[in-house]
Each structure stands twice: as structure tokens, then as C-alpha cells.
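User: Predict the complex.
Assistant: Input components as received:
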Amino acid sequence: MECVMRFLAIIALIVAVVVSSWIYIDREDDVGLRQVGVKDFALSKRYGVSGFSLAGVVGGDNEKFHVNKDYKYILQQIESLQNSVRLTDDRRAQLRDEIFYYSRKANDDFTKPLLKMAWEKGLISEKEYYGEVAHMLSDNLEDPKSIIMEIVAAKNSYGMEVMFMTIQEAPWREGLARQDRDEIFAALEKSKPVFTTEMSVISMSDIYRYENWLKALELFYTGADYMDHLDRIIVSKADEPREFFAVIYGGYYKKLLAHGKFESIARMNRVVADYQRSYPENSISEMIVQKM
Amino acid sequence: MPNSGQIVGIHIYAGGTYIGGGNASLTREFAVQQACNSTHSNHGFDIPVSVPAALLDGTVRDVQIYSIHEDGSVAQLDNSPVRLKFEALPGRERPSNLGDIVGRDLQYEWGGPLNYFGHIGIWDGGNVIEATGASNSDDTLKITSWATFSSAPALWPTVVPVLSDYAQNYCREIICNVNGLSAVSPWILPIQTHVGGLRELAAKRAYLSYLIGASYTRLATFTPTKQGTKRYQVELCSPFASQCNPPLVTVKASRGTYRCETFVMHSWAATSIHSEYAFHHQSLYGFENPKKAEKWGRQIDYIMSPLRIISPKAMYENFKKWNV
């Protein structure tokens, strides 16, 4: 009897450990508790503990497996791969999940080198590399300008698309020197998105991309009034009518009006009306115009 | 040259695609010479064009006509581009509404019956946002042109999901403020919401997932992409302190795992305020009737139910009618 009780006690202990680990994992995903990981990392650096321990869950509900690997472990796994080695699908998927998990949970000195190596070893694609690097911009990091310049220099359209969105909420923006802001603004300005479909068609993805570009520009503008810039540079020198639909969708029509940019407003009204007359079957243009 | 008697070549393009060419060597009637204020009328042409099936989708396109001269120079004709509607082949019409569901048979040579289950994506007004990756899990979420998507031989008719459209506020960013923009007064709700109808929300959610990123899974279960959050940790402030500077905590957006139909399903499920997949700050706009949202919530519950068969074909059929 005593033996059975001991056995049951051991089973109960194992269950308790497993359940508590899952509770921890659930909490890890909660708002704000990522700080726990960051604190661990800071402590590990301070006390010379190697690596940064991460615990979490990767994959869908039926694909859960634990990731309890530190940065060094993941790096070793990637480094040990020969370029010519073809991984099994499962092993490759597992490594990819670990890399992405680290990339989204940490935003430290190791994140970018890890992603770079993963790209070089063929574990993630070029698009995924620049996308992940662009996601780093949504949180505090050491040298955001170099990341922006790298993405712009690579002309990776997906990376830029993600970047236009993530830098809008970037907490590091406030501490930037004016010269850095100007350089970032100039780099962004040269990266004007293009519309991907025939003129008669409005893809909302194109509109979102252009709208995010406008907002990103606004956040790094160091002049007195961004509406002046929008008026002089963007609205007056638009290459095609769909740019105006993105301006409207982004809420800038009302802002231009409030700033008394009546010439721009008149031009936008005329071009938008011409577009709608030319392509009366386009329901997206109607939806956007209703937001004027 | 255009005004010389030399024979010139003609190239014709529709939306950037070459559709025909030949020589402008026909002599036209004298009236043409007069109308063009030219010394001759030797550059008439009658050139048959061959329009690829991918362009026959009901879209209005600009057709550009270029003259190619003996010295190698090229000029676009003054009276081009010409705006023409390319009538659609039966069953290949472009979708007309945001969030429409497009589908096609799979194209495995070895697939046989598997091809019947098909592949679906979501329409963003001009392109298809889709989850692909049966053979390669990289870059799972893609924005694909209609010409590419519809080039499959067995294209399914577009489904316009049945719904009673209503407007909602929602956060459309990758990172949403969950307790305010200001460290001084974080309890003030952020002005970070946008207003849109259900179709707009579905297309936006698909695009957000595309930006956030996802991996492919062969399973019928999925992990949704999640918008990131940022907030001031005001709970660290002492209620007795005269001032407090709480730290700002950012949580990056998290990646998802999808198969094609679970991606479409999640994009639409996010439009329901009653589902667990709603956007941050999602709420009914103005005086919208809450009963519409409740009915839509029940429809989404039906479609999302684990008791349903989850396959591209089944999902496609489920969106065609009210199921509740």
C-alpha cells in the first residue's frame, strides 16, 4: 500500500511540475511579462552566466513542443550545419521555430547575428531575414539607424514594408539625434512604394504600404510642419492617382484641409473624381472616398 | 521616322505585357494625312493581337502602342495609351469585394483526389493574400497577383462571404497601445483606432498577418498571428508618490502557423468582436446594432467549430451561406 502511495505521490509531483511549467509558459506570453526574460538576460550578463535561457511554446495547439534553449545552443546548432547538408523537414522546421521564437522574444545584441547566420545557412529566406530584422525596430535596441540603412540598402521590399509599420511605434525614436532623424528621413523618402497592379485596380495592400510609408516619414520629419512637406513634395509631385487614395485613407486629407492646403485639396479632388469617372466599377475607390 | 516614308515597326503592350506587333506599312486614305497634318499617310496598320488568357479577367487596361524606327529609336504613339476593357473568360472574372474568397484546385501531378481539396486565398482588392508552403515552409504568407493565382486551369468561382456589414473601431497597427500613449496620463485611452466594415477588417487582418509573418503547417489547427502591445507599467508606481516614470514595455508581434484555409478562416474570424481573435481595441462603431455583431459571431463560431471538417473546399462552402 505504502509503495502504491509513493508511486502516486511521484506521479502527482511530475504532473505538478509539468502543469506549473505550462502556467509559466502561458504567463510568458502575457503582456509585459517578456520583461522577465530581459531581466534574466541582464543578470546573466552581469554575473557572467553564459547564454540567455528562454522557455516557451512554438507551433500550433497540436504542435506544441518546448523550447528551452539558450542563444548559444541555437547558434551552435546552426554553426554545426554544413551548407551542403540537407536537413529533414522536421529538423529544419524545429530550428526555424527556435530562431523565430528567439527573434521575437529577445531584442538584444545576439538577435541580428543569429538571424544573419540562419539566413546564410539557408534556414530562413532573405525575405524572412529582412522581415525579422525590421521587427526588431518595434522595440528598444542599440543601433536602430544601422538596421534601417541595411534594409533600405538591400532594397528588400518585404523588409521595407514591415519597417514602415514597425518604426511607427518605435520607443527609441524619442532619443534620436536630429542628424540621425534627418538621415533616416532621407533614406525613407527614397524608398517610395510603387503600386503593383494595373491602374484600374486598387489593391489595399498597396494602399496600406503607401499609407505606412507616409506615416513613417511623418514621424522622422524634423521640419516645422509635415503638412507642408506633404503638400509640396508628395501631393504636388505624385506619380499616379492612386497615391491620393492612400493619402486619403491615411487620414491626411482632413489634415491638409485643416492646414489650409487648398490647392492640394483641389488637385486631389480633381484627380480622384477623374479616376472614379475612368474606372466606375472600382468599388475600393468608392470605399476610400467615403473616408474623406 | 514618324513623319518619313520609312516603314516602321509597331509593338503593342497591354498592362506591360506584349500582345502583338507588326509593320505600319498600310497606305491610308487622304483624309488621314490631312487629319494628321502629315506629308503622307503611309503608316497605317492592322495588326492582330494575341491576348494571353491571364489578361482576360474583366479588367480595364491601358494599351500602349510604340513605333520602332529604322535607326532603333522608339516612340509611343500620340494617341496611345488606349483604355480598353479585357472581357473575362467565363469563370475568370476578378473578384469585386474586399475579403472575397478565391479558390482553385491544387495542381499536384501525383495528387489525384487530393487536388479536389483545393487551395483558397483572400482578396485585397487587387491581389490575393494566401498561405502556401506544402513543399517549402519559407515565406508562407504571400501577396500574389490575380494573373498568377488565376492561371490555374481549375479556378473556382469567387465566394462573397454572406454577412450584414457593420462598422467597427479597431487597432490596425502591428504594435497597439494597450493602456495609453503617455507616461504622465496612461489611463487615457489611445486614439489609435480606425473605423472599417467587416470586409475591410478581413483584408486588413490578412495583410497584418502577412507583415507579422507565419510558418506553414500541414495540420488543420493553427496558431494565429498576434499584434504586439506596448504599455506603461503603471502598477510599479507608488500611489503615494508625487510623480512616477513607469517603464514602457513592448511585446513584439508574434508569428503564426497556418494552412491556406486556416489563414482565411482566421482573417475573417478577426472581424467578429465575439471571437477570441478580434483586433486590439475592437468595438462597435457609433450606434451600430449589437445584434448584427452577435449574429456574425454565431456565424464565425459555426465556421470555426472543431466539429466541422477543416479543408479548403469545406471552408469555401461554409462562407457561401448563413450557417446559423
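Chain A touches chain B through 54 residues (CB under 8 Å).
Let me know if you want any component modeled separately.
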